[in-house]
Every structure is written in C-alpha cells, then in structure tokens.
C-alpha cells in the first residue's frame, strides 16, 4: 500500500515534469538567432567593433537586387570613402530582436551651394515621379578607386559574410553593384541556450508517469494471488539458490511434508494389566489375532495356533517355536504361552518405529532395515530381539539435519 | 484541477525557459589591425600589375595617350618622349622597367597623399635597378606611377618600415629631421644650380647624377662659348609633386620630380639639333634652343644621429623636349 501510494505520487510528479519538459521543448529559444534591420541605402558598413561583436560564427548579410558585393578595408580608408556617400552603419544589437543602424549622409561638397537644405536631398528610395518606362537609375558607389579594398565577396540577391572571415580591425562594406538600395541587413548569431535540462526532464517525467500509471492500474486489479504465487516461487528459487533442492523422496522430511501423523507416545501398562491393555488397546494386535496370524487371544493369553503352519505363523525359531525365547526381554514370549512382558518404555504396537512387538515381528512392525516380508525373514535371527528400539522420534529440526547428512 | 495543473506546469516551463535565454553579448572592441599598412602585399601586387598592364599596352602602341590611369607624372612625360623617338626610329630603345620587384615599400595608413615605392630587379640593359614611385592623391584615386629613377651606382637604399606599419608620408618640413627634407632638397637644388664649385658640394655624398648634369652643362657652355654664346641651366623643382617618406632610421627619402632646362644661345651661328632628337623638337630652332629634361630624384636624408651625408641614391635625366625658345 505504501509502495503503491509512493508510485502514485511519483506519477503525479512525472506528469508535471513531462508537461514542463514538453512546454519547454516547444518554447525554448533557438540557439541560432537572426536579427535584422531594414536598409534604404546602397551600402552598409559594419564597423570593426560590430564584426568583433559577431564573434567567430556570426555572419552579416544584406539583401538586395542583383549582384551584391562586399569588401573589407581599413577603418580610416572606409571612413574617407563613405564620407562622400550615403551609407548605413550597423551600430549595435541591444536585444535579441533588434539590430540598430544609423544612416550617414554624405558630407556636403565644398563647391556646392550652402543654401542646400536637407529637405531637398533626394530620397534614397526611387522617386515615384520616375516614369514607368524608364526604370530607376542608380549610380554605383564603386566608381572610385578599388585600391583600398583588401578582401572581396560576391553574391546574388543576398550576400552573407562571416565576421571571422574579416581580418580583425578591418571594417566590412556591403553594397549593390549597380547602386540600387539594399533592402535589409541582418546578423546571425549563435548563442548558448541553457536547455540541457529539457530532455532529461522529459525522459524522467515519462518514466515517473509510467510508474504512476502502473500503480493506478494495480489499484484497480487484485493481484494478491499472483503476488502469493510469485512470493512462493521466489522462496523456492531462493532455496535452490542456497543448494536446498527439497527433501529426498522417501526421507522422513518427505514423509513429514506428506502429512504423516506423528504418534503419541504411551507409557506401558503394569505387567498384570499388560495383556488386557494390549488386547483392548492394540487394535492391530486384535486384528492380527482375529485373523489367526498371531498367537494372542482376546483374553490376553497366548494360544498356539492349532492348524496354522509355522510358515504361515511367521518367523519361527529353528526348533519350530514361533518366537525366540529370551528371558524377559521386551517382546519376548515364552514358549509356555505365558504372557510376554514388555520391558522399558512400551510403545503402542501400532507404532512401527517405537513399539516392541509382543508378538512375532510382522513385516509391517519389524524395524527391519531391509523391510523384508515375513516370508523373507531369516529364521532364528529375530530383529533386535530383547533390545529396546532406539529408533525414537526425532524432532523435525534434528531430523532435517540427519536427512541433510 | 487538471487544467490548473497543466496551466501551472506550462507557466513554470515558460518562466524557466525564459531564464534559459542568455544575455545579449556586451559590445566588444575590435583588436587593432596587425597589418596596418594602407596596402598589403596582395594589394600592392595588384597595383603593380595594373600599372604594368597599362604601360605595356601603351608601349606596344607607342601611344602616350593610353597612359594616365596608372601611369602619370614624370613617367608619362618621359615615356611620351620615348614613344616619339621610337616612332621615328624603331631602334631607339624604351627605358627598360622590369615588372619584377625586389622590394616594395608599402604606404602607411593615414592622410593623403600616400606613397608606395618599389625597387625592381636589375634590368636587362645592364643598368642599375629602378626605383619606382606610386602616389595616391585621394581615397578616390588609384595609386599612380609618377616617377622612376635608376639607382646611382654604389648607392644603397636605407632600410624601410615593414608591412605592419608601412612607410609614412612625411611633411617636407617635418622637424623630426634636421635639416628637414625640404631644406636638404633645396640645398641640393642649389648645388645643382651652383655647379661643382658650389660650397654645398661637400655637404652631399657624391653621385653620378649631378656629375652628369654638370658635365652636360660644361659641354653646352663650351659649345656656346665657341660661338660667343652661352648656356644656362634652369632647375625647376615641382614641389607640389615632391614627397618625403620616412625611413626605418628616422630619416627620409625625398621623391622629387624636377625639370632641368638647358638653354643655349649662340651668336652668328645656327643650332642644329641632332637627328636622333628630331622628333622632340618643337618650333624652328635657329640660334637659340632649350633642352628640357624631365628628371626624377630620390634623395636620402639621414635620420638624427646618423654620420652619413645626404645624397642622391637614384635619379634619371630624360630629354623630353627641344624647343626653339
């Protein structure tokens, strides 16, 4: 529950991060920006400081009609050259959206009339009074000497020159070949936008959102059965991983896991009451007596079989005695038919592991390791006759250790 | 709730993104120009090529009117005279001016006029290298070849500033050099006028130019005296076309076009010009004739502390006109 709640909260944060990331991805500023300004003159001059401002990857460009030319020159030379021409100077870039320019009018000719007013100066744009037949007439600004130009570039309709291509300290002049006005100047710059966080934000937002969606789905579906099987499988795999492949078939652990009942130990009754107790408590003995296979009667006495052969009666002594006579050893039965005495801690005859069989050790009750049937038992070698069984019940932990061995 | 969440996230994104936009770079100051000379090698080479293209075209046509864009001044006047002579006699050679330079002295940035000088390799006529001088009067004007002068045998051009700064044009009366370039040049002109016996003769290093002028003057004088005439040399400097450029040692080279007029007058005799100069004769010469020479001098004025004398390192003396008066 706590994990699911955490996942849901993470999903919420993921959705927020994803939205922020996607909006930022859509709205983030361009790494390359082009800033322009309109131009109405036939020449644009980019001073050396503005060329340095453009850096190594900035580019200045002008738009116009026809062949466009660009030259670099010494600042002093270009200033002298421009003094008699109307040119546009690029003066700065205060924001990422604007490029500032200024127009320099030609210096008045000393021979010209001093009464000439600025209003009378012709507009740089073509006069609307020009007839439609005759196109606008322009005068090239390149009529003078070309000795001052150091480098030159040529383009058509648009000419772009990298700031780094101009020797530091020089200025750049861009103009139209025929003297027609240029339409615009722009500066293209690269900038370092701090947007490296956008992509990781989108990725992590997506991951957290997916986690949240999964948690939301699991909230609606009961997966506890699957979880239980998974945990069981995990435990199983863990045991295999530690070298425990499970109980061996037939081992006590296997039998215990199969659900074998653990017998309750019973104290043996007093000798006088043993027969009765045995006859009344031991169902197996009564059963065996009923089918005549054992020499035990309901009255607790022993009655030798009359018509049953020795082979049918079970293992017998070499002398034909069905049971070996041996003092008062537990389980020993006298040939005279006296009730047998049970020594030590008697166990229930039904317990094949702990009971000292009062009668002949049958195949079911004898602790014969080989588990041989009565017919296969060797006559005269009673299994652990007179010896209390040490095959006691072991606690599971100890049995496990034994099984492990 | 969901809309509010989306709106808040979008607003946060916009705010964050706005913070991601860097500041506009601050205005920067450009580095100074490493190659501060007004012309660099490539530009100078372009000027030289344009000059020799024009000169070669005029030489091929023997037409002086084809000069004027890149070739002007004393060069144009001298070349015009040579075209006349060669037109009359094709065996007359034109002054050989190699188009290969062994040194180019680039002009410095600054005010106009600007001067570029160059020294050619040795010409094929076994004469000494030629010093060429270009002048740009204004930013609108091309660099124009205005003078040439063969180097005086044994003379050495001083070291000149390199392309990083260029060779500055100095005012003729600059006080950084004592005596000033103008004073030294005027003293030399006085020496030319005074002749070998002038007191100024030992103030200048020997040169073959003035020796030649003095020798021609003596020849004219001797010839005139034989006819009870006289010979007079008139030295006419063109100060407006004279420039001084700085040398590396703080001195100056004075680049001076001048005109030398040698007038001869004889009594009871007639001056018969040599046939070789007949194309240069203007008018009908009788007992008076004036030989006009378009000369070009390169005078070295040492800088302060130098222990060498000023002297002419290159000069040419070219007859351009023989007139009746």
From TrEMBL, chain A:
UniProt key word Transmembrane helix: yes
Protein name: Uncharacterized protein
Chain segments annotated as transmembrane: 197-221
Compositional bias per record (Low complexity), positions renumbered to this chain: 274-295, 343-388
Organism superkingdom: Bacteria
Chain positions covered by the region annotation Disordered: 101-135, 263-405
UniProt keyword annotations, A-Z: Membrane, Transmembrane, Transmembrane helix
From TrEMBL, chain B:
Keyword vocabulary terms for this entry: Signal
This protein's name: DUF8094 domain-containing protein
InterPro entries with a match to the protein in the record: DUF8094 (IPR058407)
PROSITE patterns reported for this sequence: PROKAR_LIPOPROTEIN
Native organism: Demequina zhanjiangensis
Domain DUF8094: 38-304
Leader peptide range in chain numbering: 1-18
């Amino acid at each position: 529950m706590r994990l699911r709640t955490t996942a849901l909260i993470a999903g919420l944060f993921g959705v927020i991060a994803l939205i922020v990331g996607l909006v930022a991805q859509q709205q983030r500023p361009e790494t390359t920006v082009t800033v322009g300004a309109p131009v109405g003159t036939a020449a644009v001059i980019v001073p050396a400081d503005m060329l340095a401002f453009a850096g190594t990857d900035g580019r200045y460009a002008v738009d116009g009609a026809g062949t466009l030319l660009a030259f670099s020159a010494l600042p002093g030379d270009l200033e002298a050259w421009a003094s008699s021409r109307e040119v546009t100077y690029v003066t700065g870039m205060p924001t990422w959206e604007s490029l500032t320019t200024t127009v320099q009018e030609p210096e008045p000719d000393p021979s010209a009339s001093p009464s000439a007013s600025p209003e009378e100066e012709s507009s740089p744009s073509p006069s609307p009074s020009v007839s439609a037949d005759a196109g606008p007439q322009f005068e090239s600004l390149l009529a003078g000497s070309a000795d001052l130009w150091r480098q030159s570039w040529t383009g058509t309709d648009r000419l772009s020159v990298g700031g780094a291509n101009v020797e530091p300290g020089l200025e750049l002049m861009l103009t139209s070949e025929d003297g027609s006005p240029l339409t615009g100047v722009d500066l293209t710059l690269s900038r370092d936008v701090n947007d490296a966080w956008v992509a990781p934000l989108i990725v992590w937002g997506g991951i957290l959102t997916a986690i949240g969606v999964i948690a939301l789905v699991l909230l609606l579906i009961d997966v506890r059965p699957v979880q239980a099987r998974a945990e069981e499988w995990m435990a199983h795999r863990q045991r295999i991983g530690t070298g425990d492949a499970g109980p061996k078939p037939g081992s006590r652990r296997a039998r215990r896991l199969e659900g074998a009942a653990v017998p309750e130990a019973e104290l043996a009754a007093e000798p006088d009451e043993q027969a009765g107790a045995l006859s009344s408590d031991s169902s197996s003995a009564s059963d065996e007596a009923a089918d005549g296979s054992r020499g035990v009667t309901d009255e607790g006495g022993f009655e030798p079989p009359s018509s049953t052969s020795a082979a049918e009666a079970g293992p017998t002594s070499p002398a034909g005695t069905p049971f070996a006579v041996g003092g008062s050893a537990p389980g020993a039965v006298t040939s005279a038919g006296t009730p047998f005495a049970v020594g030590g801690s008697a166990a229930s005859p039904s317990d094949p592991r702990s009971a000292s069989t009062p009668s002949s050790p049958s195949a079911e009750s004898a602790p014969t390791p080989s588990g041989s049937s009565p017919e296969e038992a060797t006559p005269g070698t009673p299994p652990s006759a007179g010896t209390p069984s040490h095959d006691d019940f072991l606690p599971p932990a100890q049995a496990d250790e034994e099984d492990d061995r | 709730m969901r809309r509010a969440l989306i709106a808040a996230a979008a607003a946060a994104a916009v705010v964050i993104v706005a913070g991601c936009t860097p500041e506009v770079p601050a205005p920067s100051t450009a580095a100074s120009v490493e190659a501060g000379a007004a012309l660099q090698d490539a530009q100078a080479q372009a000027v030289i090529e344009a000059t020799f293209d024009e000169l070669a075209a005029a030489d091929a046509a023997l037409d002086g009117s084809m000069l004027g864009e890149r070739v002007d001044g004393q060069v144009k006047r001298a070349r015009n005279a040579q075209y006349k002579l060669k037109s009359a006699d094709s065996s007359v050679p034109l002054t050989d001016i190699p188009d290969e330079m062994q040194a180019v002295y680039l002009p410095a940035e600054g005010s106009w006029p600007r001067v570029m000088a160059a020294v050619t390799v040795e010409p094929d006529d076994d004469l000494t290298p030629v010093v060429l001088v270009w002048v740009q009067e204004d930013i609108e004007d091309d660099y124009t070849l205005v003078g040439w002068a063969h180097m005086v045998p044994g003379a050495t051009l001083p070291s000149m500033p390199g392309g990083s700064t260029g060779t500055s044009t100095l005012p003729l009366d600059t006080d950084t050099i004592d005596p000033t370039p103008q004073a030294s040049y005027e003293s030399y002109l006085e020496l030319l006028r005074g002749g070998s016996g002038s007191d100024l003769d030992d103030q200048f290093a020997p040169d073959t130019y003035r020796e030649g002028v003095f020798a021609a003057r003596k020849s004219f004088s001797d010839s005139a005296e034989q006819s009870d005439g006289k010979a007079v040399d008139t030295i006419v400097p063109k100060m407006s076309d004279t420039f001084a450029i700085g040398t590396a040692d703080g001195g100056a080279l004075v680049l001076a076009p001048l005109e030398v007029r040698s007038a001869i007058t004889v009594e009871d005799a007639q001056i018969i010009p040599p046939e070789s100069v007949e194309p240069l004769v203007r008018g009908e010469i009788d007992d008076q004739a004036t030989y006009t020479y378009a000369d070009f001098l390169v005078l070295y004025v040492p800088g302060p502390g130098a222990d060498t004398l000023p002297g002419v390192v290159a000069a040419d003396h070219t007859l351009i006109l023989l007139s009746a008066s």
